[in-house]
Amino acid sequence: MVKFKGSKADFRGFNPTCLLPSSLSYWTYPGSLTTPPLLESVTWIVLKEPIRVSEKQMAKFRMLLFTEEEENKKRMENNFRPPQPLKGRKVRASFN
């Protein structure tokens, strides 16, 4: 399992498309990072059909770290911010 920033693991025989929903319709909008410095440098992609995860899967995800092995540990949790006003940004859809 990849736990620390900068680490990696081989996933042989794993096809990540199995994680995607049957419909790949989505919306995109320009936005910002969710943590400081909140740079407006991101294009967000929101799937029309949500990907479901279990509580157990979320618990494992929350054990991941933002930090490298030798740094003070900071878990990858609460890395969101409240919805922000559109401020003239355009939301685009991949579907009609």
| Total DSSP helices | 1
Number of strands: 3
Q: Major sheet: order of its strands?
A: 2-1-3
Main beta sheet strand tally, sense and closure: 3 strands, antiparallel
SSE class: mainly beta
Average pLDDT reading: 91
User: Tell me, what's the shape?
Assistant: globular
- Unreliable residue runs: none
Order of helices and strands: EEHE
Oligomer, anyone? single chain
Distance between the termini: 39 Å
Question: Into which percentage range does the β-strand content fall?
Answer: 5-15%
Return Rg in Å: 16 Å
Instruction: Give the helix proportion (percent range).
Output: under 10%
Structure summarized in a few sentences:
The protein has one helix at residues 55-61, and strands at residues 26-31, 42-47, 92-93. The protein is mainly beta.
Please name the defining characteristics of this protein.
96 residues; CA_dom; Alpha-carbonic anhydrase domain-containing protein; zinc ion binding; carbonate dehydratase activity; mainly beta; Carbonic_anhydrase_a-class; three-stranded antiparallel β-sheet
Can you walk me through this structure?
The protein is mostly beta strands and 96 residues long. Helix content is 7%, strand content 15%. The chain has one helix and three strands. The protein has one helix spanning 55-61, and strands at residues 26-31, 42-47, 92-93. Strands 2-1-3 form a three-stranded antiparallel sheet, with no helix packed on it. The longest helix is centred in the middle third of the chain and has 7 residues, at 55-61. It is globular. The mean pLDDT is 91.
